[in-house]
Fold:
Amino acid sequence: AQRVTQPEKLLSVFKGAPVELKCNYSYSGSPELFWYVQYSRQRLQLLLRHISRESIKGFTADLNKGETSFHLKKPFAQEEDSAMYYCALRGDNFNKFYFGSGTKLNVKP
Amino acid sequence: DGGITQSPKYLFRKEGQNVTLSCEQNLNHDAMYWYRQDPGQGLRLIYYSQIVNDFQKGDIAEGYSVSREKKESFPLTVTSAQKNPTAFYLCASKSTGGLEQYFGPGTRLTVT
Structure:
C-alpha cells in the first residue's frame, strides 16, 4: 500500500539556519514524489517534483530509494519560507495522489 | 486568480442537513479531486473523477457524494451520514498526463 509519512508536525528554525523537512514513503513500484506548500492565506501549490530535479526558492529534494525518503532541504532558511509543507506520492493510478500529514515550518527572525 | 474556484468560502449548517460544496475549473482539466484537510492529518482524499460521468471513492468517502455531469464542475455533497463534517475542504484538478494538481482556495464547513 502507498503511504507518505512526515514525522514532524512543527519545525522551528532561525533565519539563516539550514532546514530539512522529512518525508518517507512506502511504495512497491517506481515512485513519483512531490512537495506542496501552503503559505498563510494562500492556496496549496506545487513547490517541486523529484522528476524535474529542480531547485525552487532555494529548496531541493533528492529521492533516496534505498531509504525510501524524499526530504526537502534548504541551506539558509528565510522568514518567508514559513508555511505548511506537504509531501505527496503519485501511485499506480496516475490520477491518485497520497499526501502526508504535513509539517509546519516556522522561521524565526 | 481564476483557474479553479470554490464557493462559498465559509459555510454553516445545522446537524442533520445535507450541504453541497461547489468546485468549478476553467483549466480544461479532465481529473478533479476533493480532499478534506484536518489539523495534524494532512489531506485525505474523499472522491476523485478522471473523466466526465465517472468518479471513484477515495480513502474517506463515507458520508459524502459527488457528481461529474460537466467537465468543469465537480460538486461535493456532505450528507447527514457524515459523522464529523466540520472541516476544511479542498478541491483540485489536473490535466491528463500532467503531474501537478491545481488547488482551489477551499471551503470551511462548520456543522453545529
